[in-house]
Specification:
It is a single chain. The protein is built from 30 helices and 31 strands. By secondary structure, it is α/β, with parallel strands linked by helices. Strands 6-5-16-18 form a four-stranded antiparallel β-sheet. It has a four-stranded mixed β-sheet with strand order 12-13-11-14, covered by helices on one side.
Length: 917
């Protein structure tokens, strides 16, 4: 059946996505082939395809299709992450819409509702990945809450606990009051927001006073006064209630007289004010503010370190929604006990945690309402020094969207520092190759300074922590409740830990748990370690580093041999995409408009190591045009009796044009193989683009028109096949459609064809002849355009005698493509002429009687002067540091682009004038 006249991406994409998968072609049976393995960063079950997914998965699919064509047993593992926080948020939001909440159900009932949601609505992204053309092994789709995966997660937790690499500890965490759970540092986004800095007086205990002396940089006294207080500043007055000390720098002479004494927290009932010690520590900066800082270890990261170093009690003030605590004994009792502890009384961590130091009048208040009340009460008592407006960095939860509260809580931690050592060594000795290399420094910096990893989350959806508690406080960690009970002994009542594990804990097992671990499956033995991981740099620490830790700990080998980190896809102006900016691009909309092949090719061609990608609709349209050009070229071949090749090797060829194009295929294959080996997706894409568009469509098909003999049919069919194979990793849909449309090969689909390895080298003589012809025709066409002559104008050309053999050999092509009236080897006549220099030889084209030489010279001179003036003006602006440094980036970029365009125009006009002689 003849090919359709018009290329319609939508029709062929739907057809081939179904055909490939239904026939099992994404994982052809190749038990004897070399394995190639890649795992897909599992998208959230709540997710939808965004432009970052489109980039990440396109690059993976390009590699997988390339290696499959090279005959490897290519396995691309696909699946989804259960996304603990995100999924629980979605389901709770749906319940809220029905005037229900999570706590209306038992834990098991709620989890059942999440599974129902997943079955009905979760995982829409998998269908969207299919639209992109992702050739994943969908028959083995994984989910991080599958039973076998849960078994792996539990085993890892228990084994790490046995080794002492997982432990329970009370530490400061990032607490999300909206989600009511701890989150990691990586899930916190800090934004600068308007705030205040309040300065308060902390009266000295017992009415003591001291002489406060302030000096300038030269040591001269600028202020001296008697004080009965020490001044501190804070942006969070509500946390004053939990202060355990005031700290000053040990070298700060201003406060030396009162170090070791006590001061009074100026909040709460006056007769029950709490006393705290004034201590020294290296943390306070004597040159910032008053130089004295309050230490609230349970609610500030820096204070936490000071409190640990100095054995200062850390009092928790807030509950899970960041409201002031309302539990515990009356404030008077708690405050009295805190004073005893401040003066040296012994107290257990449990007792300190139980003490509620929030006065009754603040208990139960939201933290910000409590702040207002605390400030008003201190001001009413005359203990406020001043308040300053100030921009402050505020931490927000990336999902809950509210201000994070540092909180002292009991959580489970992984000893990440110990687990980080083998991956660092693997990068150092080359077992893990990070591409681009520039990311190695960032990797080492984070790994060398890594903190304990908090892996517990206060959620219901996720892998529940396999730990059980006895009433006496003993903890039993086991893979099953029966094992925990056996360890505890008969009759010991056990209560299971309510928390679940951080989603990233389970996804860290992805490279081996998806292959059947902890069972030693054949799949695991064959496909671990994976060959490559392609990841956005933004999850290097969330996921990549943690996979390296767990893989090396449990498999004794690296999870993958190469880690390829790509950049972000940005808006056309270079801005980061965000919903708030309204500049987010929907990849499905781009597929509807341009086709999946065009989007994939755009992503690949623009992926240059170490650089972000700017969206560019013009380029997308250009790659859609590229697909159309290829389609039309195939239709031309079909119309001229050129069909699918029957040979893997290049056919015999005698004609220079055929020997030339065979050599061009070999050169393109070599360039692409080199680019793929170096993970230069852009170089590989541009190599096949240049060959298919320029060498094949624009030149070869033109060169063979009117002279398509049997040899040429065989060569042209073979070359077109090679193009389809080489282009297939980037544009799988159109190439598969053309592959099957040009020949009857139903059991030999392109997706499982063989990557080109032509038994040919470049024919030096043929390449030299055809390259010369192409340059000559190009020079003639350019000259006609510059001189205002129509493309079909037939001119006489005078060639050097040394070129006679070549012109005789290429006479037919010269006549058709160069459109010369005649070819002469006599000296050119006197008068104006165009001088065409091709590979050092000058071909002369007389212009007398063809154009008005004087008028044309005047026109070109004026145009050159105008272009040069604009070029020089733009150069002046760009050489002005004031413009480059102060103008908007887009204005500078535009000026550079305009300058380059005017410079090229001036060069072109200069060359045109030179041709006139």
């Amino acid at each position: 059946m003849p090919m359709e006249k018009t290329f319609d991406p939508a029709a062929i994409e739907a057809k081939w996505a179904h055909e490939w998968e239904s026939r099992g072609l994404f994982r052809p049976a190749r038990p004897d082939a070399t394995p190639f393995t890649i795992v897909n960063p599992p998208p959230n079950v709540t997710g939808a395809l965004h432009i970052g997914h489109a980039l990440d998965n396109t690059l993976q699919d390009v590699l997988v299709r390339y290696e499959r064509l090279r005959g490897k047993d290519a396995l691309w593992v696909v699946g989804m992450d259960h996304a603990g926080i995100a999924t629980q948020m979605v389901v709770e939001r749906q319940l809220n819409e029905r005037q229900q909440k999570r706590t209306d159900f038992t834990r098991d009932e709620f989890v059942d509702k999440v599974w129902e949601w997943k079955a009905e609505s979760g995982g829409q992204i998998t269908g969207q990945l299919r639209r992109l053309g992702c050739s994943m092994d969908w028959s083995r789709e994984q989910f991080t809450m599958d039973p076998h995966f849960t078994q792996a997660v539990v085993k890892v937790f228990v084994d790490l606990h046995k080794k002492g690499l997982i432990y329970r500890d009370k530490r400061l965490v990032n607490w999300d009051p909206a989600l009511k759970t701890a989150i990691s540092d990586l899930e916190v986004e800090s934004h600068e927001v308007p705030g205040h800095m309040w300065h308060f007086k902390y009266p000295l205990a017992g009415g003591e006073t001291y002489t406060y002396v302030e000096r300038d940089a030269d040591g001269h006294v600028v202020l001296e006064e008697e004080r009965d207080y020490i001044s501190i500043a804070t942006t969070r007055p509500e946390t004053m209630l939990g202060d355990g000390a005031v700290a000053v720098h040990p070298d700060d002479e201003r406060y030396r007289p009162i170090v070791g004494k006590y001061c009074e927290i100026p909040v709460g009932p006056k007769e029950h004010r709490r006393l705290i010690p004034i201590i020294t520590d290296e943390y306070p900066d004597p040159h910032f503010g008053s130089g004295a800082v309050k230490i609230t270890g349970a609610h500030d990261e820096n204070d936490y370190g000071v409190a640990q170093r100095n054995n200062i009690p850390m009092y928790r003030l807030m509950d899970e929604v960041a409201a002031m605590r309302a539990d515990g004994a009356p404030y008077t009792e708690a405050a009295a006990r805190a004073v005893e502890i401040a003066k040296g009384a012994t107290a257990t961590p449990a007792e300190i945690d139980a003490l509620n130091l929030v006065p009754e009048e603040y208990r139960g208040l939201d933290r910000y309402e409590a702040r207002k009340r605390v400030v008003a009460d201190i001001e009413a008592e005359g203990l406020m020094v001043k308040v300053e407006d100030k921009l402050i960095m505020q931490p927000f939860g990336d999902r809950g969207g509210v201000v994070i509260e540092p909180m002292l809580t009991d959580q489970w931690y992984v000893d990440a520092k110990t687990l980080a050592q083998p991956p660092m060594q693997a990068v150092r000795d080359g077992r893990i190759n990070i591409v681009p290399k520039t990311w190695e420094k960032t990797f080492f910096n984070w790994m060398e300074n890594i903190q304990p990893w908090c892996v517990s989350r206060q959620l219901w959806w996720g892998h529940r922590i396999p730990a059980w508690y006895a009433e006496d406080g003993r903890i039993f960690v086991a893979e099953t409740e029966e094992e925990a009970q056996a360890e505890a002994g008969a009759g010991v009542a056990l209560t299971r830990d309510e928390d679940v594990l951080d989603t990233w804990f389970s996804s860290a097992l992805w490279p081996f748990a998806t292959l059947g671990w902890p069972e030693n499956t054949d799949l695991l033995k064959r496909h671990y370690p994976n060959d490559v991981l392609i990841s956005g740099f933004d999850i290097l620490f969330f996921w990549d580093a943690r996979m390296a830790m767990q893989g090396m700990e449990f498999m004794g080998d690296v999870p993958w041999k190469t880690l390829y980190l790509h950049g972000l896809v940005r808006a056309p102006d270079g801005a980061k995409m965000s919903k708030s900016k309204g500049n987010v691009v929907d990849p499905l909309g781009l597929i509807d408009q341009y086709g999946a092949d065009a989007l994939r090719f755009f992503m690949s061609a623009m992926e240059s190591q170490g650089r972000d990608i700017k969206m560019d609709d013009a380029r997308l349209a250009g790659y859609r045009n590229f697909a159309t050009k290829l389609w039309n070229a195939a239709r031309f071949c079909e119309a001229n009796g050129i069909s699918a090749s029957t040979s893997f090797d290049a056919p015999p060829a005698t004609l220079p044009v055929n020997r030339w194009i065979i050599g061009e295929v070999a050169a393109t294959v070599a360039a692409m193989d080199k680019a793929f080996a170096a993970y230069r997706f852009d170089d590989a894409a541009n190599a096949i683009y240049s060959f298919a568009w320029d060498r094949f469509c624009d030149w070869y098909l033109e060169l063979i028109k009117g002279a398509i003999d049997d040899e040429t049919k065989a060569v042209a069919g073979w070359v077109l096949d090679q193009i389809l194979v080489m282009l297939h990793p980037f544009m799988p849909f159109i190439t598969e459609e053309l592959w099957t449309g040009l020949g009857d090969r139903p059991d030999y689909p392109l997706i499982t064809a063989k990557w080109p390895a032509p038994n040919a080298t470049r024919d030096t003589d043929a390449s030299a002849d055809i390259d010369w012809l192409i340059k000559l025709v190009g020079e003639l066409r350019t000259g006609k355009a510059e001189l205002g002559l129509p493309p079909g104008a037939r001119l006489t050309a005078h060639f050097p005698a040394s070129l006679k053999t070549r012109t005789d050999k290429l006479a037919a092509q010269l006549d058709r493509l160069a459109r010369l009236e005649s070819v002469s080897f006599d000296p050119a006549p006197a008068g104006a002429s165009a001088q065409l220099v091709v590979e050092g030889e000058t071909i002369t084209v007389p212009l007398e009687g063809v154009i008005d030489i004087t008028a044309e010279r005047d026109r070109l001179t004026k145009a050159l002067a105008a272009a040069a003036k604009e070029r020089d003006g733009l150069a002046g602006r760009l050489n002005n540091p004031s413009f480059v440094e102060r103008a908007k980036a887009e204005a500078v970029e535009k000026a550079r682009a305009d300058h380059a365009a005017k410079e090229a125009e001036a060069d072109r006009l200069t060359a045109a004038l030179a041709r006139l002689g």
